[in-house]
Amino acid sequence: MQALSNASGCDPASLISCLREKTEEEISEITGSVGPLMFAGRADGKFLPKLALELLTEKAIAPVPFMIGVNNHEFGYIIPRALNMTALERGIQRDVIQQYLRSTGLVRARPEVLKPLMDQYFGNDTDPLRVRDSFLELSGDAMFDFPALSTADFHR
Fold first, then answer.
1. Would you say 143 and 73 are in contact if contact means Cβ atoms under 8 Å apart?
2. How far apart are CA 50 and CA 55, in angstroms?
């Protein structure tokens, strides 16, 4: 919130009303200067009394009908920016992907899972463009599909 407040020149206490007064061009400029923002739920004790995972595990959520779905290339254009991997236009090498998966929490893969994961998503492919596309597929699955399926399992 502070970064958005600084970039917009808005007081944090009145950020929403201040942003509503901005023109489309101003909002575009502010967004470009701030970069991607990540928002996550936070247990505040009132609206969200516990962590979402705890509430789901305890089945302490209102039973309502809902539908969970995913599609291809889930927000895939923003994933490289969010992961600070912006130079993917020319593709990427498999060894770079393996290093990346070992050093980040993207898929939270234990070492013994890394090889089957690489086999499943990349096979024996070494073409940098196809490797990049497979990486984006893996990233989308890790960030959107797997959480959607996990959430659905809690509602059985």
1. no
2. 6
In this structure, what DSSP letter does residue 43 have? -
114 alpha-carbon distance from chain centroid: 20
- The answer to whether 66 and 151 are in contact (CB under 8 A) is no
CB-based contacts of 114, cutoff 8 Å, min separation 6: 98, 101, 102
Same domain? 87 vs 146: yes
Residue 38: per-residue pLDDT: 57
pLDDT < 70 stretches in the chain: 35-40, 74-77, 83-84, 86, 108-109
Specify burial of residue 67 (Cβ count, 10 A radius: 0-12, 13-18, 19+). Answer: exposed
Q: Which residues contact 59 (CB under 8 A, 6 or more apart)?
A: 154
- Among residues 127, 133, 152, 154, the alpha carbon closest in space to that of 67 is found at 152
Question: Are 147 and 96 part of one and the same domain?
Answer: yes
**Which of 135, 105, 110 has its CA nearest to residue 120?**
135
Domain of residue 50 covers 2-57
DSSP state letter for 77: T
Chain-centre distance for alpha carbon 97: 17
The pLDDT, as a whole number, for residue 74 is: 67
pTM over 0.70: no
